[in-house]
Structures are given as C-alpha cells and as structure tokens.
Amino acid sequence: MGDPSATQGPKCRTSRRLAGRLLLLTILVGPMSAAEPQNNERMEAGNKVVLGVRNQPLKTGAELLLAGNYEEGVRMTHKGLAQALGSREEEAGLSNLCAGYLQLGKYDTALQYCDMLLVRNDKHWRGYNNRALIFIKTEQWDKAEADLIKGEEINAGAYTMKVARSLYMDAVHPVAPEIEIDDRKTKNRDEKE
Prior knowledge:
By secondary structure, the protein is mainly alpha-helical. It has helices at 10-34, 56-66, 70-82, 87-103, 107-120, 125-137, 141-154, 159-172, 184-192, and strands at residues 43-45, 48-50. The chain has a two-stranded antiparallel ribbon with strand order 1-2.
C-alpha cells in the first residue's frame, strides 16, 4: 500500500507528524516516572541516606528519547535496563526500548522489546500501544487491530491509545476530502439556471 499521507495535503501530513511526536512523548512519560522513587523513598548507602533517582541511566535515556536523541536514548536505556531494580524499572526500560527502536525505524528490534515486555506483563497497555504502532508502520493491519483492541480493553481512556487508533483508521480507512478546488463547474451550472 504505500504512504497514505502521500495522497493527502500538507496540512494532513503535518498533523500526522505532530501526532507521531506527541504519541512518542506520551508513550515515554509514563514509563519514565517508573524509574523515579517516591518522594519519601530513601536508599541507604553505608551511613548516608541518598535521596533522588534510583536509576539515573534509565531516567536519562527516557529524557533523551523525549528530546528526539533516539540513538543516545536507546544506549542509555540499555545501560539503565542492565541496572534495573525490580519489575517496574525493567518494564519501563523494555517499553522505552520498544518506543526508541520504533522511532529509529528498526521495527524488528522494537518488536522484540515489545514482545519481551508483554511476556513479562500482559496487562501493560503501553506495550500493546507500541506494538500496534510497529504493525501500523509495517502495514500489518490485522495484528495492529488486535493489539489496539487489547490495549483499549486495559486502558480505554488512554490518549495515546486514541492517537494510535486514529493513525490506524487513517491508514486503513482514509477519508477522501470533499473539497472542490476548481469552482468553474459550479459557476457554469449556476449561470445556466
């Protein structure tokens, strides 16, 4: 099928690009906070009490991905995943690697991280959201639809799920514009009457 935006105007292509950037932003914001401890959480280091981020590479990786520095963001996220303490940090790292590789256009690698995430936690709606985006990008419409349904069952009100659904609908069922650019036909018709 090709790029559906190729037959649409520049305004539609711009809004799709913005939706993609916004989608990445909202995909990564949730998992990024999972790497941060609660306000009152403390980690003991000898006789010192250390306050702050428990997994700095994971947080830095998420920030780099949000800033659009995908190569470095993926590198730092790998480093953070190696240091992950607990399932929340591991799932955040896997989710961010899926999103990062998706943005790099490395769909096979992104799919591997989404699959790892969903094997660990089949209730992780962001995993279904990210994987649906991979399937949309690779024009695997049935798989995209199945993941959208699963993600929506888990978190129907999620904005990113709604954006992913609209990207899917735009690709599978594009709306033809009903704009008449050449109004000479209308004028001639009106003059004859």
